[in-house]
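Let's sit down with a protein and look at its sequence and fold side by side. Go ahead whenever you are ready, and we will take it from there.
>
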Amino acid sequence: MTVSSGMGWDTHQKTFETHKTRNQPGLDQVLSALIRDLDQRGLLDSTIVMCAGEFGRTPKVNKNVGRDHWARSMAIVLAGGGLKRGYVHGSTDSSGMAPATDPCTPDDIGATIFTQLGVNPNTELQSPTGRPIQLFREGKVVEKLIG
């Protein structure tokens, strides 16, 4: 299931004000409540919660007090599904420009999630016309994430 807030996270201007007053309070409340509820009901170990955007944001603030698109580094939140609790994986360099330790790709995260769901990430599917489609071309399971 995918949940979207529709609140507009693409903040090229007034990033800090927008996040403080509009985006973060709701996300923090809902995401923490979901994870806590799943845990209290004994469902967190069989459910994977992922919170991510499709790219990171520039480490430097632009002239409009915003942050632009940045593909070299990003953050995501993963919880449940047999993944380590309270674990932080990887870091960026001191300026936030690029991965410094334990870099991984979106395909690596996808391969890890699929593995935790019992699906081999190297599985090859076929389109209706018989064309082969790999689930992940280059994704490798990030073993350090698994609890």
